[in-house]
Amino acid sequence: MSTAPPPAALLRQAVAQLAPVLTVLTDLGERFAADGHDLALVGGPVRDAFLGRTSNDLDLTTSARPDDIEPILQDWGNATWDMGRQFGTIGARRGGTVVEVTTYRADAYDGTTRKPVVAFGDSLEEDLVRRDFAVNAMALRVPDLAFVDPHGGLADLEQRVLRTPSSPEVSFGDDPLRMMRAARFVAQLGFVPAPEVLGAMTEMAGSIDIVSAERVRDELSKLLLGDHPRAGLELLVASGLADRVLPELPALRLEIDEHHRHKDVYDHSMIVLEQAIDLEGPADGPPESVPGPDLVLRLAAILHDVGKPATRRFEDGGGVSFHHHEVVGAKLAAKRMKALRFDKETTKRVARLVELHLRFHGYGDGQWTDSAVRRYVTDAGDLLPRLHRLTRADCTTRNVRKARRLAAAYEDLEVRIDRLLAEEELKAVRPELDGNEIAEALGIRPGPVLGRAYKHLLAVRLDEGPLGKDAARERLLAWWSQQPESRDG
């Protein structure tokens, strides 16, 4: 049943938000109408227009079938593509404008496979009822700009609530990924799920298992890059979805932190996430500022302590330890990210940050040698700006004196790092003899022995700083005299 039309002023405001693309929408609407087809802007672009947000997508739906859509778009655009034809979607580009036009449809899973089954529909209303949430089941017919809202999406938008057009059990049965999408909208837009939506998510959490890891990963990434990722993650945990897609996170709820505060490691990790976000640089900032939103930093923040459950030990006197949890955590983080099909580089970077996040705590009151500072920098490599922020964010103590001491110690470390970077160009640190020079000095050929000699000179460089080529050659020959290969030659 259709709701009352929105106030004229509100609709004018939404249309004004679409002004940059209104000419395109009108042109396409007239072209489809001339061929006897309906066309409507639908979903996210309509929602965002009422929110006063700019949408980068132009998603349209039509009564036309793919074979009818394609020639219209070919005549309109400079290029078309049909990779989504099996789902009823044809894409086109005209200059800098990209559109995707999809036949009225309904997606559903057969309950066993991970791919949606597609059935085409015959009306806009039929299409809208199968959308994920009412706020995404609003449409704007083109070219006449008639607003269609059969499920009260605009009212939900004003109340920031997520409801489904049909019953949530039917909606999530059609596509279980919609449960993940609910958490994403919580994180991106600050919405809250209606009680019946949360109930269905909790009851049907297990059905997420039929969705491909790649689709789950994409929703999780979008959630983490939102303005309120903690709220989205908390919904995943509360509904039980996190037990299926990111079980390391809810596992942290059962652990008491090593400082015996009332917060558990789960709550601590959420605080670290929020504090890391606060330390991100502006989106257009230089790389060393870690422009936000930064997926690697945010993943490292929520995963940095996932090794604690496996390493918890109760000590004599009532203490709790988590020895080497950073090493165990790095392995667990990498394993989970591989299961979610994250790319190798992102996985490697997050795991390395987890592994390094405790390194600073050996700094104490600044007693590290320059050698130790050099190793801190070279071990972090280009992750150093993120490691700075993760380490600072990891301080969640309520002890003001301790917090100030940790902050001062890290500031001191950063000053020392900046000094050494300026003096020695640590980001490009190399042995003072290259591979050819090492081979010539020792009279050896490329191979494992040369690799060992290179590593030895690198360690000398890190421990003692620049020595000069002559001194480096002397150190190399002294080391070589102790190697069995030198006596065998």
Helix content: 40-55%
Derived from helix and strand composition plus strand pairing, the structural class reads alpha+beta
Uncertain parts:
257-262
Computed Rg: 29 Å
Q: Which percent range describes the beta-strand content?
A: 5-15%
Measured distance between first and last alpha carbons: 91 Å
Task: Please give the largest β-sheet.
Answer: 7 strands, mixed
What is the compact description of this entry?
This protein is of the alpha+beta class.
Task: Describe the fold and architecture.
Helix content is 54%, strand content 9%. It has helices at residues 8-17, 19-34, 44-51, 66-76, 124-129, 153-159, 168-174, 177-189, 195-204, 213-224, 229-239, 241-245, 248-251, 265-278, 295-303, 308-311, 325-339, 344-356, 370-380, 384-393, 400-424, 435-442, 448-464, 469-480, 484-488; strands at residues 39-42, 59-62, 79-81, 89-94, 97-103, 105-108, 117-120, 139-141, 147-148, 161-162, 192-193, 313-314, 320-321. The strands form four sheets. It has a seven-stranded mixed β-sheet with strand order 3-4-5-2-1-8-9. A two-stranded antiparallel ribbon has the order 6-7. A hairpin with a 7-residue loop joins strand 3 and strand 4 (89-94). The chain starts with 7 loop residues before the first helix and ends with a helix.
